[in-house]
Specification:
Blueprint lengths: L1 H24 L9 H22 L5 H20 L4 H25 L2
């Protein structure tokens, strides 16, 4: 149960970081170069929210959702890390931590 709570917390933190980054990207001077970041922020936030709901409901599809979430978080972290803006760097870190939490959760439940 502890792994579930920890992962849900990381998912919520990642969702918030992505929403903050997305909003801040909209205010960037060269918004066109931020479009990939904005789209990944949006997708990552949605996926993290969805994953949290699947975990909380004990869905039989949780493992697949967590795997997808890990992949999207990694992609979002890669994109955000390309930008020097503080909000992008903070988002990249939150996404990396969330992806790591997804991997940890998956490996701990695989042995159950």
């Amino acid at each position: 149960m502890t792994h579930q709570i920890e992962l849900i917390q990381k998912l919520a933190e990642c969702t918030a970081a992505c929403e903050i980054c997305l909003d801040a990207c909209l205010d960037e001077e060269d918004i066109k170069k931020m479009v990939p970041c904005i789209r990944l922020d949006r997708d990552c936030a949605k996926m993290c929210t969805l994953a949290g709901a699947y975990i909380a409901s004990h869905s039989s599809f949780t493992a697949q959702i967590i795997k997808q979430c890990e992949e999207i978080c990694e992609k979002c972290a890669e994109e955000c890390a390309k930008h020097n803006a503080e909000h992008c760097q903070q988002c990249a870190e939150a996404c990396r931590e969330c992806a790591s939490a997804c991997r940890s959760y998956s490996s701990s439940t695989a042995v159950l």
